[in-house]
Write a structure and sequence with these properties.
Structural class: alpha+beta
Largest sheet: 3 strands, antiparallel
Strand order of the largest sheet: 1-2-3
Radius of gyration: 15 Å
Number of helices: 1
Order of helices and strands: EEEH
Strand content: 25-35%
Number of strands: 3
Length: 75
């Protein structure tokens, strides 16, 4: 029997990693690759900007994802 609290969907989203990455198509601007996880599920993406700005954007994204996740629970 599987406990519900062990399922990935029951775990909150979180920022796993934000690291500098090469610009797409050989551009010269600063880019970062981020990884968001929820248990075994991951979301990876690229964002342009300074580390502090990308961190702020990704943290806001995680907050919205967690708000949506909380709203989907049965009452």
């Amino acid at each position: 029997m599987i406990k519900l609290d062990t399922l990935s969907i029951e775990q909150p989203f979180r920022v796993d990693e934000i690291v500098r990455a090469p610009a797409p198509d050989g551009g010269d601007s600063m880019w970062h690759r981020y990884v968001i996880s929820q248990g075994a599920n991951t979301i990876a993406g690229l964002r342009a900007g300074k580390h502090v700005d990308v961190l702020s954007q990704v943290e806001a994204m995680v907050e919205r994802l967690n708000q949506r996740r909380m709203g989907k629970r049965p009452r």
